[in-house]
Amino acid sequence: MSLTDLLFGKPLASYEDRTERISAIGGIPIFGLDALGSAAYGPEAALTLLIPLGAAGIHYIIPVSCAIIALLGIVFFSYRQTIDAYPSGGGSYTVASQNLGPFMGLLAAAALMIDYVLVVAVGISAGVGALVSALPGCQPYTLHICMATLVVITMVNMRGVRDTGAVFLLPTYLFVICLFAAIAIGVLKTIISGGHPTPVVQAATLGPAQGAISWWLLMKVFSSGCTAMTGVEAVSNGVKAFREPRRQLARHTLTIIIAILILLLLGIAGLCSAYGIGASEAGQSGYQSVLSQLIGAITGKGWFYYVSMFSILLVLVLQANTSFADFPRLCRAVAENGYLPYAFAIRGRRLVYSFGIYILAFLAGLLLIIFGGVTDRLIPLFAIGAFLAFTLSQAGMVGHWMRKKGALSKSSVLINGLGAFATAITVVVVIGAKFWEGAWITLLLIPGLMIFMTGIKRHYSRVARAMVGPKVLSAADLLPPLVVVPIEEWNKVSQKAVRFALTLSHDVIVLQIDAGEKKENLANKWADYVESPLKNASLPAPELVTLESPYRYVVLPILDYVLELEQMHKDRQIAVLVPRLVANHWYENFLHNQRGTILSALLLLKGNQQTVIINVPWHLSA
Amino acid sequence: MSLTDLLFGKPLASYEDRTERISAIGGIPIFGLDALGSAAYGPEAALTLLIPLGAAGIHYIIPVSCAIIALLGIVFFSYRQTIDAYPSGGGSYTVASQNLGPFMGLLAAAALMIDYVLVVAVGISAGVGALVSALPGCQPYTLHICMATLVVITMVNMRGVRDTGAVFLLPTYLFVICLFAAIAIGVLKTIISGGHPTPVVQAATLGPAQGAISWWLLMKVFSSGCTAMTGVEAVSNGVKAFREPRRQLARHTLTIIIAILILLLLGIAGLCSAYGIGASEAGQSGYQSVLSQLIGAITGKGWFYYVSMFSILLVLVLQANTSFADFPRLCRAVAENGYLPYAFAIRGRRLVYSFGIYILAFLAGLLLIIFGGVTDRLIPLFAIGAFLAFTLSQAGMVGHWMRKKGALSKSSVLINGLGAFATAITVVVVIGAKFWEGAWITLLLIPGLMIFMTGIKRHYSRVARAMVGPKVLSAADLLPPLVVVPIEEWNKVSQKAVRFALTLSHDVIVLQIDAGEKKENLANKWADYVESPLKNASLPAPELVTLESPYRYVVLPILDYVLELEQMHKDRQIAVLVPRLVANHWYENFLHNQRGTILSALLLLKGNQQTVIINVPWHLSA
Fold first, then answer.
1. Cβ <8 Å between B500 and A516
2. Which domains does chain A have, with CATH numbers?
3. Could you tell me the pLDDT band of residue B284, with boundaries at 50, 70 and 90?
4. Cβ contacts of B475 on chain A, cutoff 8 Å
C-alpha cells in the first residue's frame, strides 16, 4: 500500500471533500491551460493558410483575429451566464440535455468527449514534437517520450485536483508572463519606431504572392484560427471544483482566462503585421513557428527567447491536462444519467473520478501509438467538437431563459442566442473548410458514440425495470433448497461439505464422477460411512449419485446434472455446494486442479434463477 | 467445438484406449527418430574435434566409432532386459526409483527432463538451421520458422500417438533408405576400387596437422561422438504404448532401431575414412556437413543428393518428436508419485497427457526464443542427462536382479552391471570433456529440478495428511450457519438473496454500506419492508446492520465485518450470501460493478474454515 500511497497520495475520506476545492489562482492553470495554450497554435494555423498570398497576406490576420476575438467575446458572455445558471457545473452536456432534451445532450457529450481525447493526443505530440525538433537526438524516442509524458500527467491527475493545480501553476504563469513581456516590448518598439520596428533577428522572408484573396480563403483562415478558442468551456464545466463562493470564483477565473487569451491573440496578430512575420511551411527545412520568429524579432535569441520557447513547449504538453480535469467530470455527468457505465460516477481513493482518467489516458495512448506520436493530421478533426458543443450549450441556455420568462432573461436570451448563432455558423464554416482534411472522421465518430451511449442506457433501463418490484418482502414459499454436493474423494474436505449441506436442507444429493480412472467407489461404503451414523443421530441421509464419464470430463457431467435437476424441480432452489481447496500461497494453486473455480463460474453462467452456488473452502493452512 | 475437433481430432472415450496402441513399424518413427537422427550429428561432432590433426586424424574415427558401437551394444542388451522386466513402461525413472530409491529416481527424472527439452530445441533449430543455410532468403525468419515448426509438432502430438506415427513414418523411412543406399553404393565402390574410391564430387581439402593425438583428445572425440546414442532409452520408456504382445513388439522395435543405428555409424565412419572426408569448421565460408560431403562424394550432387539432404533435414526437425512422445509419459510417472503436479497424470481429450505436451512445448519455445532459434551452444549440455539416466537405469536393473536371486539373473546382473559401469564412465568422461563448454549448466539444473520436485512432493504429502481423517461422517453439532447478506440496494436481487438466506437459517444479518454517497437508507423502511411481513408469517426477521465507509470502499468493510463475526462466533459457520448479477453477454459485465466477484474471491482467501460463500445469481435474461 505504501507504494500506491507514494505514487497517488493517501486515500481521502468523503468528508475531506471540501478541502480539495480550488481558488481562482489555482483554477487558471487547471481550467485555462487548454484555452491559453491554443494561442500558441491558433494564429499559426491561420497564418499558414495565408502563405500563398506572400507578404501582402500577413495583414489579413488582423481582421480575422478581430473576428475570432469578437466570437470569443460572445462566447465569454454566454458562458458567464451558464456559470450563474448552473453553479453545480454546467457543461455543454448538462445545459443541452436539460434544455434541449437527451438527444442534443448526447450530441454535445459525444462531440466533447472526442475533442478531449484529441486534445490530449495532439497536445502531447505537439509539445514533444517541439522538444524533438529542438533536440534532434531524441527523434527516435518520440513515442516513448509521448507515452512517458502521458503516464506522468495521468498519475498527477490521479492524485486529485488540488495537487494537479500546484504542478501546473508555474508553467502556466511562466508562459503568460513571457508572452505578455514579449508583446509589451514589441508594442513599445513599434510605437517608438512609428509603426515600423526593426527586428533584432530577421524573420524568414516570405515568398511572392501566388494567389489572390477570396472569401473562401478568408473562411478557411478563420476556421483554422478558431482552434485558438478550444478549451474555453472548461470553467463552466467544472464550477463544482471551486471553493465557495463558487459562482464568483468561477466567473473571475473565466474572465481572467478570456482576457489573457484576447490580449495574446490581439498582440500576436498586431505584431506579426507590424514586423511582417508570416508562417513558414511546416516540415520544410528552415521551418520556425510563428511565435519563435516573433519573439526572436522582438527580443533576439537570448535567454529570454529560450525561456519563452521552453514555457510554450511545457504549456503545449500540459494543456492535455485540461482534458484530464474535464473529461472525467463530463463522463460522470453522462454516467449519472445512465448513458455510460456507472464506474465513471464512482469517486476513487483520492476523490477523483478515477475511471474516467484511466479511460482518457488509454484512448489518448491508443491514438499516440497508432500515429506513432505524430498526430499533426488529427488537428483538422478537433475544432468541430468544441464548436458543436458551444452551439448546443448556448442554444440550451436560450431554452433555459425562455422557460424562466423574467425581465432579466430577455437580454440573457439575446446574449446566448447571439452566441448560439455565431458558433453555429462557425461549425458550418469549419466543417465546410475542413471536411476532406479529416472533419468527416469526427462527423462519423459522433453518431457512433451516440449510438453506443444509447445502447448502454437501454441496457441499464432494462436492468432497472427487471430489478424493481414490490418493496415488501414476500414471506411465502420459503422452502429449503435441494443441495447437490459434487465430491472428488471421500476425505475431510468432502466430509465438511456434506456436513454443511446437511445443516441447510434435508434434501441432499452427493455426486461422484466415475471417469474410469482408478478411484475408490464410494457406493460400497456409503452405508457405513454416511447412512448409519446419520441414522443413529435420527437425521435423514443424503442420496449418493454416481455419474459415468467416458470422456473423462469432470465438470461438464456435473453441470448437465444440475441443469436437469432444475428442469425436474422447477419449484425449488438448487444449491450446488462446491468444496474448494484454498492454498496458503498463490503458486500452490498450480498444484491443485481448479475444477471448483471452473464449476462455480459455469454454474453462474449456465444456471438459471433457481441455481445457487455455495463455495465451502478448505484452508490448507488451518 | 468443431474447430478444436478439426485441429486436435475428436475427443476419445476411455474405452477407446486400446485402439490407440502402436505396432513395431509404427513404433520406429515414434521412438526411434531421436536415436536415428543422432547419426546425422554424432559422427560430425566427433570428426570436428579431429580437425586439428589434419588428414591423418580422420582414421581415428574408426576406433572411436567402434567404442561407441560397443557401448551401444551394451546399452542395447541392458534395455532389452528392462523391457522384459518392466512391460508397463520402464523408463530410467521407474527403474531407478523402484530399485535405488526415490532420490536416484528423481535424479534420473531430472536428467531426462532436461535432456528432452534440449532435444526439442536443438532438433528444431538444427533442422531449421540446415534449411536456412540451403535457402539464405529465409535467414531473417529463423525464429519464426522454428516456432511454427514447434506449433505444428505440438498440435500433431495433441492428436495422439497413432496419428503422430502416421505423420512421421515417411520421413523416417526415407532417411533410413537414403542413407542405406548411399552407404551400400559407397561400400561397393570402395571394394571395387580396392579400398581407394574416387569421389564423384571432391570433398573439402583438409588442413595440415597442427597437433598430435593424445588420450585426452580421444576422450573428447569419444564423448562428442556419444551424442549419437541419445534417444535409445525411448522404447523402454514407452512400452505401454505398444499393441499386444507388448514386450515382443517393443523388443523388436528396439532391436531394429539399434541395428539401423549401428549400421549407419559403421558405414559413415568407414566411408569417411575411405574417402578421406573430415569435418569442416562450422560457421566458416564453404562449410559443408560431413554427411553432405560424404553423399556428394559417393553419388555426386544429383537428385539423390538433394532427396537425402531433405530427409536429413526433416529427421533433424522431427526428432523433437521423440521428446513429445516421452516427456509427457515421464512426467506422468513422476506425477503419479506426487513429485509433479497431478495435472501431468490426467489424460486429455485425445487420451494423451496434454499437460506434459504443453509444458514441453512451452519450455522448448522459451529456449528457442531466448537463443533466437540458434541453439548450437546448447549441444554440449545435452548428452550428460542421457548418460546419467542410462547409468541409473542400468544400476537399477542390477538392483532388480539382485533382489530376484534366480539362476537366470546372474547373467542379467552381468549384462546390466557392465552397462552401468560403461555408461557411468561415459558420464565422467563427458562431464570432464565438456564441463566448461556448458556441462556445468546441466550440473546446476539437475539438483535445482530435484529440489523443486521434492518441494512439490512435500506439499502434496502435507495436503494428504491434512485431508485424511476418520472415514465415518460425524453427525454431531450440525448447526445451521449464521448468514450475512451484504446488499447494495433494496430491489428484486437483494430480496431474492434475503429470501434464500431465510430458507437456510434463522440467524440472518443484512448488511448495508453507507459510503456517504446518495443512497436510500434502508433502516427507515426495514420494519415495513421486512419485519412486518415476516412477523405475519410467524418467521423470525433478519437483523439490519449499517456500516459507515468514509473512504467509499465497499468490499473491505464487508470483509472486515465477516472476519470479526468469525472471531465472535467461533463455534459457527458464517455463510456470506453474495447477490450476483449475471449478464446475457460477457461485454455487459463492463456495465456492472464486479464487487460480487471480488468479495467472493477475498472471502475465499482471507476467511477461515468457518466461512462459506454463497453466490445467489440474478440472471438478467430471465
1. no
2. 2-461 (1.20.1740.10), 482-619 (3.40.50)
3. low
4. 533-534, 536-537, 539
